[in-house]
Amino acid sequence: MLGLMMEKPLLVGSLLEHAERFHPEQQVVSRLSNGGVVYHRYKELARRTRQLANTLLALGVKPGDRVATLAWNTHRHLELYYACAGIGAVCHTLNPRLHTDQLSYIIEHAEDTLLFFDIDLSPLVAKLAGARAGLMRWVALGTEAETAKAMLEGCLAYEELLSAQSDELVWPELDERAACSLCYTSGTTGNPKGVLYSHRSTVLHALVSALPDCAALSAHSVVMPVVPMFHVNAWGMPYAALLTGAKLVMPGNGLDGASLYKLMLMEKVTLALGVPTIWQSVLNYLDERQLKLDDLREVFIGGAALDKTLLQRFEAMGVTVLQAWGMTELSPIGVVNRPLPDSGRLGAKHFEQEKLKQGRGIWGVDLRLVNDNGQALNWDGTSAGHLHVRGHWVAGQYFKQAESACTTDGWFATGDIAHIDHRGFLKLTDRSKDVIKSGGEWISSLELELAAQSHAAVAQAAVIGIPDAKWSERPLLILTLKSGCEIDLGSIREHLQNHVPSWWLPDRLEVIEQMPLGATGKVHKQSLRERFN
Ligand code: AMP
Fold first, then answer.
1. Does ligand 1 lie within 6 Å of residue 332's CB atom?
2. Of all atoms in ligand 1, which is nearest to the CA of residue 332?
3. Fewer C-beta neighbours within 10 Å, C or N terminus of the chain?
4. Strands 66-70 and 114-117
């Protein structure tokens, strides 16, 4: 027997309608590329989004069309998210840190028809101007005067387009399975692959990410996604904030310690989200000037592993650190680390070890671990294996790829290696392509890197496997150092042996000036392999 409740599709537009009706005065604060800060209320955001949707329709955008953005976190980018989704089009976020060849490939592959860009990114846009020649129109995210000043010929100006349109619109009824946004993975090998999110997956992800044991959002929260809107939809915060009526603070391209500190202080940010490297620069800025952020209660850290020093530095400021693990294919949240009611009784050392794990499962994402033969592993906190997931916001297939992205029994193989303990806390030990197989056993490059990073002289650490006649592979440790510091193989090995088994200790060390970083701010191990192998 079927239930007799109404069936209302889960649509992204409903989040904006809710925010406009029930939190009309709540603010979206944006730092623009010229350094100025502008304020919009949710009621204005909704009005401008309808004008933008009318603009898109006037420009001929049809349901399913991909509309590209090359933009920082601002209210305008948010308007694009909602206007595209609202008319059944797809907001395709491009990462400006990618190489132009990769961007051109992605634009061609997605068959984008329009590209909206922040004016400070116009040198990059000029390099892409040949992409989809004759088929693409370009819109600069500013006024006509700003566009003219930047000498952007042939571009449309966002603000003039909007003001020429009515702010009235009846949003179409859409299928909740319709696509609403598209983000390509920043894969280090092969071509990037498109993850095509649906209205349904996005709304369910927003609902769960707002829960108390996840980001714990409410109308009292002041949320600053430092993670860019082109990196897995700023971890879903542009949706979860409107769902809950939280104030949204958008840092634009001001991602240095000084700009972030100023904005967080001014807007009384309570929750900020970003990758570890961002927080290191913020904390260095605060420490050097003996500053504090009294309103900041929680930071949400993901994208790369949280190290002990970062955790301790935030805790010393009275800020709770929440680690999460996820990926583009998971919208992105997979597990989140919130203590359990009895975590405090574990004792300080164990409690800290638990906090350094990536986190526990959340409703909506199933987890499993399997060995190389596909057999399920126990959740005993030591048996490491391939992490598989499935759930409401997990990719089943990549954009324009005929085959499924899943195993034959319907799981998505994340490419990560992890173990899970009996309390459900997952600890990531490696990427499967980074794990070092030495004498038939696995060495976790991630754990070695975290251990090396806890040395006072070390700024950044990376570990790669190099071929070895006897052991097949051995770890090579690559470091950048804090200014004025020195280190040698003997002293780092001495430090490491307090943290990892002795057979993991690297027999070779390379100190380099600068760590190569990929487009999402993570260490680009492929270029290290090319350099040192
Ligand atoms: P992306 O799709 O670019 O967001 O990258 C996803 C990958 O980042 C995951 O598969 C992990 O390898 C890594 N990652 C994400 N969160 C964490 C975390 N908390 N700790 C360690 N690695 C992480």
1. yes
2. 4
3. N
4. parallel
Nearest CA to ligand 1 atom 9: 327
Considering only CA atoms, give the Rg of the chain.
Answer: 23
What CATH superfamily classification does 436-532 receive?
ANL, C-terminal domain (3.30.300.30)
> What are 195-204's pLDDT values in tens digits?
999 999 999 9
Q: How far apart are CA 507 and CA 530, in angstroms?
A: 19
Q: Is 35 exposed, middle or buried (0-12, 13-18, 19+ CB in 10 A)?
A: exposed
Query: Smallest Cα–Cα separation from 297: which of 281, 277, 320, 274?
Result: 320
> Which CATH number, 3.40.50.1370, 3.40.50.300, 3.40.50.12780, 3.60.20.10, labels domain 13-254?
3.40.50.12780
Backbone angles phi, psi at 434, to 5 degrees: -100, -15
> What separation in Å is there between the alpha carbon of 522 and the centre of ligand 1?
9
pTM above 0.90, yes or no: yes
Rounded CA-CA distance 359/315 in Å is 18
Name the residue of 102, 300, 308, 325 whose CB sits within 8 Å of the most ligand 1 atoms, as the mutation to test its pocket: 325
Q: Is 486 strand, coil or helix?
A: coil
Domain boundaries, the chain: 13-254, 436-532
What confidence category does residue 277 fall into, taking pLDDT thresholds of 50, 70 and 90? confident
**Which of 327, 331, 520 maximizes ligand 1 atoms within 8 Å of its Cβ, making it the mutation to test the pocket?**
327
CB burial of residue 389 (10 Å; 0-12, 13-18, 19+): buried
Which structure tokens are listed for 288?
Answer: 């050097």
Per-residue pLDDT tens for 424-445? 999 999 988 888 988 888 899 9
Taking alpha carbons only, the member of 501, 503, 518 closest to residue 462 is 518
Q: Tell whether ligand 1 has an atom less than 6 A from the beta carbon of residue 233.
A: no
